[in-house]
Amino acid sequence: MTEFLSTFEPATGALLAELPIGDAFRAVAVAREAWPDWAATPLADRIATLRRFAEIVRDRADGFADLIARETGKPLWEAKTEVDTVIAKVAISITAQEERAGTRVTDQPGGGRMALRHRPHGVLAVLGPYNFPAHLPNGHIVPALLAGNAVVFKPSEKTPASGAFLVECYLAAGVPEGVVQLLIGGPDQGRALAGHEDIDGLLFTGSARTGLALNRQFAERPEKILALEMGGNNPLIVWDDPDLDAAAALIVQSAYTTAGQRCTAGRRLIVEDRIYDPLMAALTGLVDRIVIGAPHDDPVPFMGPVIDDNAAEHLLTAVGDLVAKGAKIIRPLERLKAGLPLLTPAILDVSDVADRPDDELFGPVLQVARATDFADALRQANATRYGLSASLISPSRERYDNFWTGIRAGIVNWNRPTNGAASSAPFGGIGWSGNHRPSAYYAADYCAYPVASAEADGVAATIPIGLRG
Questions:
Q1: C-alpha angle 220-228-270 in degrees, rounded to nearest 5
Q2: Residue 426, preceding peptide bond in cis (omega within 30° of 0)
Q3: Distance CA 217, CA 223 (A)
Q4: What are the pLDDT digits (tens) for 410-433?
Q5: Helices in 41-186 by DSSP H: which ranges?
Q6: Which residues participate in catalysis according to the annotation?
């Protein structure tokens, strides 16, 4: 009897779709059988197929964006930008494939040549997140397919319909059905896929907790590639005398875009003590104007709900714990509607919390702390196991140079939000934010492995030393 996975609209609670739960063992077997022919397909043909995929997504963009918006709860305008990134990923990945995993042949002194070529790993598992259910898995899948791998893709159990739509676009473009396998399911299917003997690697985007478990699981399997893209407890420092209204806008963009459900979201705001009061006045004035609502609401919302009630309850509990430790509420975290995960954007002053939890609160919660000098600000910013994104808001280039040198993060910005990283650059962090396998432009690095070859057209060799006459 077929079991089904149900997916719901966070903003309304309505049932969106029911999809049949898959079998990880069958999906891997099918991908394994299909992989050799795809790997043998000329790169030019694989590129042409992925370009068709981009055009198909473009043709279906309105329906795709509507589905993503309803399944994640994010505003329709934001879902449309996600679809745009899915399309743009193809051209960027083609360029990255050539630059980072292309073929190089150089002549050697004395004859012969040295060749550098790249081979696909084989069958790669991709575990996708719910916050960007198309863009983030697509960022693994497109470079994996370009490199000649087959893929078994398990979308988040919270956004399976968006994942299924993405796979339909690959198939419509001519990617062979066996080469991209869709695995619908929950944690059981994810564990079965991650632990399958016949995968050659796993590309993961999600929480640090799950990523750490995968890291332990793969610790004794060095033959399998593991790329972990995890979360962040990202700091945002405001110093010197920036335009306070502009600073407030950057803080809101960092902390509350996607209802704070971005791994690069600004979670911790560290403020020079002397500008704290005027900055808080500008920030709260802007936060109080944020429109929160369902994807298609009018007026258009800036942010929607978090993904579900469990996520909302976790955030409410975490905020309560911070208040119990001494945090002061500047703006509370509250439900807008009973039974729905629509939350107000929260601001907490944690300056007097001695033992601040180093947790990624994946939602619209901003923790603010004062700093007496810039060395103290850097110390607070680096007081985390994570190391994904960090940003400085300051008019001083000298201050930014100091910040860039002192901060521990894989993405370091100046007068820009902590989020919104470009796909034309590497995307990844250190510490609990990743395992030194940055994605985006550098995804080509983990989708193929380099093969160096010393080559000569003829056999010619002597041993001039160490032989008896």
A1: 130
A2: no
A3: 13
A4: 999 999 999 988 889 999 999 999
A5: 43-59, 61-72, 76-101, 135-147, 160-173
A6: 229, 263
